[in-house]
Write a structure and sequence with these properties.
The protein is globular. Strand 9 and strand 10 form a beta hairpin. It is of the alpha/beta class. The strands form two sheets. It has a six-stranded mixed sheet, with helices on both faces. Strands 2-1-4-5 form a four-stranded antiparallel sheet, with helices on one face. It has nine helices and ten strands. The longest helix has 14 residues.
């Protein structure tokens, strides 16, 4: 009898207060299955960043539990957890610091011990997945913002993560770059958790959306249904762009 794999993410009763006493999370329960693409929505100050920082153990010490692919997020597992949870920050320049694109993408796998042809193959595959293989020898600062964001995704994919966490992936992108990144994200065979205020992008890319508001899960369901629930949206300070109708997107 085969056992089904553990979900990519299991959060149970997660509560967290910062040292200054500010309570950011009040008992969050969230399960994300393998291969799911989930949008994490909510107003500023809702606790989204606090939740994300618990996924790879940057924040610890609160109540409740977090498991990634069945592995508890705790001190003894942090090295493995941080390979499994790849976070792509809002500003790609926070992740790109080497002289060339190739060296940036190679940095993580090389630190994990890969060398020679094996390392080169991993780097090439990661760049191929984001459509940036031909730019391997370019300095990152010579690339457009959208290209740098795709390279930042590649630096995380090179570590073969279980979960790809994206912080506002569409911010500051022109329409063409937005489309290119969407095509990349749709093609990936990893679990995706996308933190975003861009509700049309959430609808386009994530079949499921979770609303986090005032430190609790306030909504969870198919993205089109969540965005079409006017009362739920208003209660949680979420607004669709003027004229955008959720049902208009296939």
């Amino acid at each position: 009898m085969t056992t089904s794999p553990s979900p990519s993410l299991e959060v149970h009763g997660l509560a967290y207060a910062y040292p200054d006493g500010h309570q950011a999370l009040f008992g969050v329960d969230l399960t994300v299955g393998r291969g799911e693409r989930v949008a994490l929505l909510g107003p500023n100050g809702a606790g989204k960043t606090t939740l994300v920082l618990h996924l790879n153990g940057i924040l610890t010490g609160g109540a409740g539990s977090v498991r990634v692919a069945g592995l508890p997020v705790e001190k003894r597992n942090l090295a493995e957890i941080r390979r499994k949870v790849g976070i792509v920050f809002q500003d790609p320049d926070d992740q790109l610091f080497m002289p060339t694109v190739r060296e940036d993408v190679a940095f993580g796998p090389a630190a994990a011990g890969l060398r020679g042809p094996e390392l080169e193959a991993v780097v090439h595959r990661a760049l191929e997945r984001v459509g940036m293989a031909e730019y391997a020898d370019r300095p990152p600062h010579h690339l457009s913002f959208g290209q740098r964001r795709r390279v930042a995704v590649a630096t995380v994919l090179a570590m073969e993560p279980e979960i790809l966490v994206l912080d506002e992936p569409s911010s500051n992108l022109d329409p063409a770059s937005r489309r290119e990144l969407a095509d990349v994200l749709r093609s990936l065979d990893v679990t995706v958790l996308m933190v975003t205020h861009d509700l049309p992008y959430a609808l386009e890319l994530c079949p499921r959306s979770v609303i986090l508001s005032e430190g609790v899960i306030a909504g969870d369901g198919p993205t089109a249904e969540v965005l079409a629930d006017g009362e739920l949206m208003a209660r949680n300070r979420l607004e669709l762009p003027y004229g955008f109708v959720p049902g208009s997107v296939a």
